Amino acid sequence: MAAPRLALSVVVLMLAVIALTEGMRGAGPKKCCFRFNDQEVPKGRVVSYAKTSQRCSKSAILLNTVAGRQLCVRPSAPWVKQLISYLDAKAVPGQTSNL
Q: Name one GO molecular function term (predicted).
């Protein structure tokens, strides 16, 4: 009679420990980059960008293209810095076009 109760207690204790350790981990980053596109991407093909999480091992920029693809690029590349400046200026609300 004591053996089944002991076994049940051990199983419940193990499940509690597993649940606690999984909860402490927290959610990880959604997307990290490990390989990078080194070729310059034309401005007209990029619709937006996002920075990867600081929890990723390598900092990167995710470029979202017109075709719906995501490309990982290095934030230190000069053409990436220019592209980010271009996209930021393009997205300024309230700015009127000179056309």
A: chemokine activity
Q: Is the pTM of this model over 0.85?
A: no
Q: If phi over 0 gives left and psi between -120 and 50 gives alpha, with beta otherwise, what is residue 68?
A: left
pLDDT in tens, the chain (99 residues): 677 787 777 777 676 666 666 555 555 567 899 999 999 999 999 999 999 998 899 999 999 999 999 999 999 999 999 999 999 988 766 655 454
List Cβ neighbours of 38 (8 Å cut-off, separation of 6 or more): 73, 74, 77
Domain ranges of the chain: 2-90
Give the Cα separation of 94 and 89 in Å (integer). 11
